[in-house]
Amino acid sequence: VKKKILFELRKLSGSYVSGEALSVQLGVSRTAIWKHVRELREEGYKIGSSSKKGYMLSAVPELNENEIKNGLQTIYLGRTIVYLETVGSTNTYAKKISLEGCHEGTVVVSENQTSARGRLGREWHSEGGKGIWMSVVLRPSIPPESVQIITLAAAVAVVKAIQYVTGIEAAIKWPNDIILNGKKLCGILTEMSCEMERVNFIVVGIGINVNHSEEDFPQNLRKIATSLKIFSQSIKNGDSHSYNRSAILKRLLFELEQMYNVINNCPSNKIDVDLNTNGNAVIAENSDSLTKEDSNSIVNEWRKYSLTLGKEITVIARGGEYNGIAVDITSDGRLIVLANDGIKHEILSGEVSIRGF
Ligand code: BTN
Predict the structure, then answer these.
(1) What confidence tier does 271 reach under pLDDT thresholds 50, 70, 90?
(2) Cβ(130) to ligand 1 under 6 A?
(3) Model's pTM, two decimal places?
(4) Which of 119, 130, 133, 172 maximizes ligand 1 atoms within 8 Å of its Cβ, making it the mutation to test the pocket?
């Protein structure tokens, strides 16, 4: 009932709807309407009331389950949202519910993370209420060695969503750091559970710095991290601009679903076949495994936004460092580096970090 009340108030946002009309339309008492309105207010919805005219919605919270689902254009990504005020790490939480069998496309979002994790065992600073801290559960029918392509797709989805919603053009540092003005705007941590030949599930964890001011980052990160708000301030003579996190998140899920359908061989005319009994998105019956063309179409998108290709870089691997030129990436997402000694390397993201521009 609460969702239906919100739906009705949203339809008439800016004008009043009477408690009587709502109660008749939804078949519940006026007291019940009043109680749900009170709950909605507690959740951050600004609902004015007047004894003569009824209720009027004047403002909505920036990020919660309802706001993400309202106008969401996806078929299965984000159809189940777990919205939490605080969690240790959305990735850890998503892994737990994946093991318990949650639906493919389930998204875990939290306002705060107390022990967020980054790649290569690093920590991730996730300032409460300022960023998008989320994890998406996928159950792709591709072999474990192809999973990197999903991380590349996620990076492309982030860049496209940010561009669509804010007009800001970020770029990708291989494999999947999103960079703005030479500083890190977003990081992606993909984790997977698999057997030798099949993936049980993967969790794509995405952290985007959205409405941080400089002071919201610890001192040691201020030189290397940025947010959309800081960037907008720098181009608008100091005027600060906050962005709607639900809008970015929704678009991100849409962009990611488009690319994931290609990877997972879900032709768009088939994907409304619904979820199967295990809760996985149904894959076309005649689907092959991930083809080179499918991968290439994702990799081509990735190339468009790459900051790394053509640049001189330093590869920092366990065995030591070397310099070279990042010449391309393979269809499965490895970076091809022509080292200064003439040797060509194909590097995997789990093994190295790169430095360079
Ligand atoms: C990196 O660049 O090192 C990856 C950072 C990934 C951070 C996100 S925030 C949401 C999700 N939960 C985590 O604990 N980590 C990822």
Answers:
(1) very low
(2) no
(3) 0.90
(4) 133
